[in-house]
Amino acid sequence: MAMGTTAMATAMATATATAISALSDLYATYQSTIGYIGINGLLALSVYATLSCGQLALGSAGFMALGAYAAALLTVSAGLPFPVALMAAAALPAAVALPLGLPVLRLRGVFLAIATIGFGEMVRLFLVNWDFAGGAEGIVAIPQKASVGLIASCLALALFVLGRLRGSKWGFALEAIREDEAAARTMGINTAAYKLGMLVLGAAIAGLAGGLEAHFTFMVAPNGFSFERVVDMLVFAVVGGARTFWGPAVGAAFLTLLPELLRELSPLIGVQPGPLRLMINGLVLLAVILFLPNGLASLPAGLRQWRRRQRRAPEAA
Amino acid sequence: MTPALALAGVRRAFGGVRAVDGVELKVAPGTVHGLIGPNGSGKTTVINLVSGLLRPDQGGITVAGQSTDGLPAHRIAALGVARTFQNIRLFPELSARHNVLVGQHLRRHPSPVARLCGLPSARAEERQADAEADALLERVGLGGRAGEKARSLSYGEQRRVEIARALAARPRVLLLDEPTAGMNPSEVRAVAALIRQVATEGHAVLLVEHNVRLVMEVCDHLTVLNFGRVIADGAPVAVLKESEVISAYLGSGGA
Amino acid sequence: MGQQIINGLFLGSIYALFALGYTLVFGVLDLLNLAHAAVFMLASFVAHSLVGGAHLRLWLALPLAMIFAGLLGVVLERVAFRPLRGRADSNVSGLISSLAVATVFQALALQVWGPNVSRFPVGTVPERPIAFLGGVISSLQILIIGIALGLFVALAVLVRRTRLGRQMRAVAESPRAARIVGVNVDRVIVASFFISSALGGAAGVLFSLAFNAIQPDMGRSVELKGLAVIIVGGMGSMVGAVVAGFALGLVEVLVVAHLGGSWRDAVSFGALFLILVLRPRGLLGAASLREG
């Protein structure tokens, strides 16, 4: 009897140790991916911030760039401690978002999108031409101070704040603005202030993500903050589902992991990894926008409804 | 006594069309003031002007003596004005309860810090708000339906949710724009009773309606518009006898 | 100075042609088609394959590439825009689905033609420089400006004088009213997409001839400039697109000549921003919001 228990205990201990070792190997290999899930999650949330009140603001690449460069310059050139740099990374874009938002948030739908895309491009152009910050080459040899744990904590904080917002008086006001802005105003909601607040919050989150990325990948360069970048962020938010505060993070995780999986797959299909990744991204986005407009986050509720309908059908017959 | 709502010489044109052409109106607190007239006579424009979705070209609007001149819609709402819409503008994806909760926006003052930390004071405030919202829905006869999405409710039910949402603000002035359009007779009776109750509680009600019988039952005072101008103003029975009013309605096939 | 004007007009004609496609779809459907640049790029590749691979002459390859682009536009409308038409947020979701299709198109281009730069074979357009306005204008530039102007005139005739043009203007004004008077709105929309994409395809072929470089991401910078052009010119205004396109081309060339190449893109975004803040409807755009 005692022998059997010991054998089982030994077997379990060995299995656990192997699992932990395998997981930590996995972790070491995929550390970069896991870190990026966190960074992309933050970026998706920065776009979600304005989407949640119905505004398609696409300036997050510009805000991210401002945060990344501010943080990088403070640690590399000014030698300031990393926490200070990180706070500046969130604060600078937030400060810029204020004067930007005032004129720009008055624009409707597509015009707001274009204006904010324009803003992002102007930031990129400015950085390309700013020799002190390395011009087109950017800044290299940034100390690696952002650990996966820190990134995860920042993502958790952002999720917490946005999650607490939902279901509160201010969260309801944001949803009202998304549904019908004029009607919301007649209920006393200062829609301009709310929209501006969310733009500033989104800018701070994007800037934070930028500061983290700069200290995770050792370098920043202007071409990392192009229009494509903000399109990626939008795709994360839409695929994950912008009707819940956690949907965008799910979308970011899914679309960050997907290329890794595809890289294993592509030799089997005979398609290059680059085109394959793009193709899948495009098809996933198309499928979501056509068939699952509220994103992956709406799957559980959708499945529940579908199952309920199936159960009812035989009775109806 | 200061009127809860007063319009003086209010004019508003769209292109060449004078939708509202020198309207004078006074609504006393605790009364129901009807605003009737044929289609296109400017009734909804008046409501839009009072609630701030439109600016008057000329003239003044005051709420409890305070001018709304130059104020954005959300500040006018803060003076104590709430409304329903002729075409129903509920928030379709939100539940009935959530719609009413938004109506409470100006009256709720939760602490952001308490909410962020999930403190008991915040949770109590939210429970209170929910209870009030549910009570209002109960009052308009939608007691068990609070959790349903607004867009899945029937037309009459949606109108009632809109009324509950407007009442949630406990406004000085309640603007109702054709609140019983599309309702069946028993629903109309219930809304009529509700409107009288609301007035008794001290609110001033400006009621735009096509249903003349409802207007006769419920209103203390009546103003008739035609082509943006006031053609009659006074006690309902007297006003409806005036020949100009009769010809306005018969002439344009209104009501 | 004369040389710069020539270069500016030549660049501007391509911008104008590209922007016309954007503005056509926006005018008729109140939608921004972000797959326009991908069509621009695919048409260039197809023209290149026709000339380089199938050894067709340019005067045949260009119309064929345009037709191909037009058909892509029809597919795009059917797949990405039509299913979304009833939805409340249809112009935002339309934007996103056009982005999705653009990504798919780019992936196709990468897979079929690879990431490297392709060039037209030498001699596609005979080189014959002519002195003009104090500068030198090449036969290529004459060809491009000529084709662009020809297409502008053709479009103007279509819109002003033909039945389809009248129907397009009616739908742009109000689809509901147009349907009531018997216009087949769906067909008009398909036709608009065909024409818009064909113009974008033409712009692509001309652009790739002008700069003799074709690659899967060539649409990027033009796409954003195209947006700047239609904003400045006024969304939905065809004359605005043409005028603003030429203006942008001229100003860009002058800025590069006097301030250096790195500030070139700042022109379009600066103008974009100024207009959006000061006069959102653009220089020649319609003042009112479209009714549904």
Number of helical stretches of at least 4 residues of chain B: 10
The level-1 CATH class of the largest domain in chain B:
Alpha Beta
Strand content of chain A: under 5%
Assembly status: heterotrimer
Shape of chain A: globular
Q: Could you say what the CATH architecture of the largest domain in chain B is? A: 3-Layer(aba) Sandwich
> Looking across the biggest beta sheet of chain B, what order are the strands in?
6-7-8-3-9-10
Termini separation of chain B = 33 Å
Global geometry of chain B: globular
Q: Strand tally of chain B, please?
A: 10
Poorly predicted runs of chain B are none
Write the H/E string of chain A, N to C: HHHHHHHHHHHH
For the largest beta-sheet of chain B, the strand count, sense and barrel status come to: 6 strands, mixed
For this entry, give a set of tags.
heterotrimer, A: 317 residues, mainly alpha, 0% strand, globular, B: 255 residues, alpha/beta, Rossmann fold, 2 domains, 6-stranded mixed sheet, 40% helix, 23% strand
Brief rundown of the structure:
The complex is a heterotrimer of chains A (317), B (255) and C (292). With 317 residues, chain A is mainly α.
Descriptive notes:
The complex is a heterotrimer of chains A (317), B (255) and C (292). Chain A has 317 residues and is mostly helical. Chain A has a domain of 192 residues. Helices cover 77% and strands 0% of the residues of chain A. The mean pLDDT of chain A is 89. By secondary structure, chain B is of the alpha/beta class. Chain B folds into 2 domains: 165 residues, 3-Layer(aba) Sandwich (Rossmann fold); 79 residues, no CATH class. Chain B has 10 helices and 10 strands. In chain B, the strands form 2 sheets. Chain B has a 6-stranded mixed β-sheet with strand order 6-7-8-3-9-10, sandwiched between helices. A 4-stranded antiparallel β-sheet of chain B has the order 2-1-4-5, covered by helices on one side. In chain B, helix 3 crosses helix 5, helix 3 runs parallel beside helix 6 and helix 5 crosses helix 6. Chain B is globular. Chain C is mainly alpha-helical and 292 residues long. In chain C, a hairpin with a 2-residue loop joins strand 1 and strand 2. In chain C, helix 2 crosses helix 8, helix 6 crosses helix 8 and helix 9 packs across helix 10. Chain C is globular. The C terminus of chain C is likely disordered. At the A-C interface, helix 4, helix 9 and helix 11 of A face helix 4, helix 9 and helix 11 of C.
